[in-house]
Amino acid sequence: MSADLFKKLSECGNADQYFFPQEYTVWKSVRGGRKLMFREGQVLKSGIGGVRLNEWDHTGNDPSLEERCQYDVSRMVASIQALRQHEEYKNCILSDDFTITPQVENARGKRVKFGILLPDRSAYCDDSYAAKKCHHHIVHAIHRSGFVVDEPQTFDAATGMAGLKAWAEALKLRRKRRWRPWLLLFPLFFLLYLFMPSCDADRLFSFSLRSSSFILIIDRSGSMSEVIDAVQQELDGFLDGLMSRSGFRRSFYGNIISYAGSAESALGGLERIDQNTSRRLKQYLVGLHAGGDTYLINAIEMAAREIAEHGKPTTLFIVTDAKDETIPRMLAELPRIKSLFQGIDIDVNSITPRIINSATESVAPINEEETALRDFTIAFEGTFGRIDQSK
Predict the structure, then answer these.
(1) Number of C-beta neighbours around residue 80 at 10 A
(2) What is the pLDDT of residues 324-355, one digit of tens each?
(3) How far apart are the first and last CA of the chain?
C-alpha cells in the first residue's frame, strides 16, 4: 500500500517530497485509523525536500522566498486533493505528525515533511471537515517551525480543499518575535495559577468544556423524568465552577436547549455566564417537566443557529435516552448537519439516563439507539458515555 501511495504522490508533480520518505516509513494502526509514520529508530536529518517555510519580504523587493513557500504548501494541498479522488484514499488527510529540518539555501527558513492519516470512519469524507483538519495541522507545523501566519488571517472551512489550496497560494509568514515583553508578567500569572480552582470545575458529567462556550441539550421526553434532578445538581456545580474561574479577561458563555417534539431555548442564545444568567439557567431546569416525543434534530438545528450567531467554538453536552428516529437521519446527512454550524469548531458529548443512574454501568452502547447516538457523537470529535477521570 505504501508503494502505491507514493506512486500516486509522485504523479502529482513529485509531491512525494513533501511527506515522510517512503524508505523510512510504515503504516501504523492508531485509534481511529492508520498513520504513515517513521519506522522505529529512524530520524530525518536531510534538509532537502519538504515544504519550504520562509518569511515574506515586507519591502516587496524580493518576493521569491514567499513564492516558494506558497508554491510548496499549495502543491502539498493539491496532492492530498488528488489522493482523495481515489477510493482507497478518499478519507485521507494530513496527520498531526511532521518533521522540521533547516534549509540549506536559506538559514532563516525551515523545511517540513508531513505524515498522512487514513481514518477508519467516514467523517473525513466531508470536504469542509477534511480541509479544516488539514489547515489546523499546517498552521501547527508553521508555529512549531518558528513562524506565524501573517496573511490570510482566516480560513473558511466551508470552501473545502479547493479553498485551502487558494489560502495556501496567498500564504505569507513572518518569524515569531524573540522578545516577548509579556513574559515580565509571568510571576503574576504564576500567582494567579496557584489560586485558580481545579480544571475539574470545567466538567459536566465528566466531560471537559473544551472551549469557553457551551450548550446543554436535554431531552425532555417522558422517560427523562428520573434523571432531571441529577442533571440539575450537575449543572449547579458546573455553573458555580465556571463563575469561580471567570475574571481576568476570561468569560464563559452558555445556554440550555430542551426538546421533545420541538426545541426550546432557555436564554434565546448563548449569554455570558454571570450571577444572573446562572440563576436563570438553574431556574429553567427546575421548571422543566418531562413529556412528549423525542426529536434531537430540532435541538441541533436550533443550537447551530445560536452558535453561528455567537461565532465562537462551542461544546455541546447532550442528555437523552436516544430513543429518537432523527438520530439515524442526521447520521445519513452528516455533511448537511455539519454545514449548519458554518465552519465554527464544535465538539459533542452525550450521555444517557442509564449511564447517569449507575457509576458501574458500561459506557458501551447496549442497543441500536445508543449506537446511533455514539456514532453521531464521534462524528463531531466527541465522547459517548462517560470519561474515566482516573486516567
Answers:
(1) 25
(2) 999 999 999 999 999 999 989 898 999 998 88
(3) 35
